[in-house]
Automatic annotation (TrEMBL), chain A:
Has very low affinity for the DHPS substrate 6-hydroxymethyl-7,8-dihydropterin-pyrophosphate, but can bind the inhibitor dapsone. Seems to lack dihydropteroate synthase activity, and does probably not function in folate metabolism. One of its GO terms (molecular function) is dihydropteroate synthase activity. This is Dihydropteroate synthase. One of its GO terms (biological process) is folic acid biosynthetic process. It comes from Knoellia aerolata DSM 18566.
Automatic annotation (TrEMBL), chain B:
This is Uncharacterized protein. It comes from Knoellia aerolata DSM 18566. The lineage of its organism: Bacteria, Bacillati, Actinomycetota, Actinomycetes, Micrococcales. Gene3D superfamilies: LigB-like. It comes from the Bacteria.
Length: 288, 222
């Protein structure tokens, strides 16, 4: 059975972990800068820890196109913050959403456990840095697009096949670069290099990615594929996100990168209980 | 000997009586991440452990299931075996099933046959009171439940003064209406140990789910 490691902790195939998004950005699509101030970002970390998040994913650059943020500015946004979060939460798993090796090195020195390479290996040195620090790395499928670009008229013969090919290649490269086999996570990256049809197909066929036997991360939260599926704007996509989360959980994905921790935790626990991976919290009905 | 095995009877005078509920929620197989009645469970384990430590010949008296829908052994038997195993002690065990709807005369006959001479014996009686004590109870509220349950508790509490014999006054029909799953085993107990000088060692009464749970350890008066 699959086991994987994040920080000093070990998990198995039945794990369903919540990775809470903490943006150190003034302009991310969902929270629109609500945790741009350091105090607000600290409060957000405390809140999601209290709510049962297993991991925080700290990001200094929004995914969508916009003002260019250089490596120095990105470091200024995240490195000291990571160090402070580590000081306050010694056992919390800390991930940093960055594609830059130089930023990755700085945050790992500051105490991060995971590099979430959301742009599919755009900086080939990133995995070497992760290996050097015995950190975990998240490999993502972007269809080869450049960081911070939107998909435009991309087509695949078989999107899942392309995801599998890309993720396996990146995972192999990470291991070759020195990342421990048990610390390589794969993520099909919904909406990245994908139109809604692609993201829906990836969701529908997620079991094929689970079968690859790497820990699988999904990032579904409030994304456009949910919005287009239901014709709902940002801010009204929670129910759709949770439905997609339940499907991904039933397929067996392991890590869920989300904005809403409480609701996600409940969905994941419910699926885990239905799947028989977790006992119910308490049972008295019909048994008294 | 492992629980669940049945030995040749080596039973004798009852020196210890333990009464526990037959609630499935006491079984590990039905437990969620947290126990729903940890106090009841711990009380049962402690009562059984202390009794078996004194008299390691155990006679389990349990009722048959009222509405069996499976081929599994009766819940009462499984609860008893679980509690005995949880004692982590050595014991010989004999299982005595009484039909849930046995007549009082049948219970008396069965109990009298158990009251033989021999080695010191713990009688482990799996018996609940009414499951109709509250509106949220499994059988909903029946206002008659309280009086019958009070009589059961009073009889057990009064064991030093011949109280157990009053269990023979329980009306089988009324008890069936009130979902008193322990009526027949309690009447077997009354017949088997009614003449034994017993005192209350411990007695916990609760109804966390609208079912009367009695956890009692009665010991031989010295």
């Amino acid at each position: 059975m699959l086991t994987f490691r994040l920080g000093s902790r070990e998990f198995d195939a039945r794990s369903r972990l919540v990775m809470a998004i903490v943006n150190r950005t003034p302009d991310s699509f969902y929270d629109k800068g609500s945790t741009w101030s350091e105090d607000a970002a600290f409060d957000r970390v405390r809140e999601v820890v209290e709510q049962g998040a297993d991991i925080v994913d700290i990001g200094g650059i929004k995914a969508a196109p916009g003002v260019e943020i250089g490596a120095d500015e990105e470091k200024a946004r995240v490195v000291d913050f990571v160090a402070a979060v580590r000081a306050e939460h010694p056992d919390l798993l800390i991930s940093v959403d960055t594609w830059r090796a130089s930023v990755g090195r700085a945050v790992l020195e500051a105490g991060a456990d995971i590099l979430n390479d959301a742009w599919g290996g755009a900086d080939a040195e990133l995995v070497s840095v992760a290996g050097e620090f015995d950190a975990a790395v998240v490999c993502t499928h972007t269809g080869g697009v450049a960081p911070r670009t939107r998909p435009h008229r991309i087509e695949y013969d078989d999107v899942v096949a392309d995801v599998v090919r890309s993720l396996l290649a990146q995972a192999d490269r990470a291991v070759a670069a020195g990342v421990d086999r048990s610390r390589v996570v794969i993520d099909p990256a919904h909406d990245f290099g994908k139109n809604t049809w692609h993201s829906l197909e990836v969701t529908r066929r997620l079991d094929e990615l689970v079968a690859l036997d790497w820990p699988l991360l999904v990032s579904l939260s409030n994304k456009d594929f949910v919005g287009e599926a239901l014709d709902l704007p940002v801010g009204e996509r929670l129910t759709g996100t949770l439905a997609a989360t339940a499907v991904a959980a039933w397929h067996g994905a392991h890590i869920y990168r989300v904005h809403e921790v409480v609701e996600t935790r409940q969905v994941l626990d419910m699926v885990s209980v239905i799947a028989g991976d977790l006992p119910p919290a308490r049972t008295a009905r019909g048994l008294a | 000997m492992t629980p669940g095995a049945t030995s040749a009877p080596a039973r004798g005078p009852v020196t210890d009586v333990v009464i526990v509920p037959g609630a499935p929620l006491l079984l590990p197989e039905y437990r969620g991440r947290a126990a729903v009645a940890p106090d009841v469970s711990e009380s049962c384990v402690e009562a059984v452990r202390s009794a078996v430590a004194t008299a390691s010949h155990v006679v389990v008296v349990h009722a048959t299931d009222r509405e069996p829908r499976s081929t599994r052994p009766p819940v009462g038997l499984r609860v008893a075996d679980h509690l005995l195993a949880a004692s982590h002690l050595d014991f010989d065990v004999e299982h005595v099933a009484v039909a849930w709807d046995a007549t009082t005369a049948e219970c008396v006959a069965l109990g009298s046959a158990l009251a033989a001479e021999g080695q010191a014996t713990t009688m482990l009686v799996v018996a609940d009171g009414s499951a109709r004590r509250t509106e949220k109870a499994p059988g909903h509220l029946d206002p008659r439940a309280a009086e019958v349950d009070d009589a059961i508790v009073a009889a057990i509490r009064g064991c030093a003064d011949g109280g157990l014999a009053r269990l023979l006054d329980l009306d089988p029909g009324l008890c069936a209406d009130l979902l008193v799953a322990g009526r027949a085993p309690l009447q077997v107990l009354a017949a088997a140990a009614g003449q034994v000088p017993l005192v209350v060692g411990s007695l916990d009464v609760s109804d966390p789910f609208g079912v009367l749970y009695v956890v009692a350890h009665l010991t031989r008066a010295t």
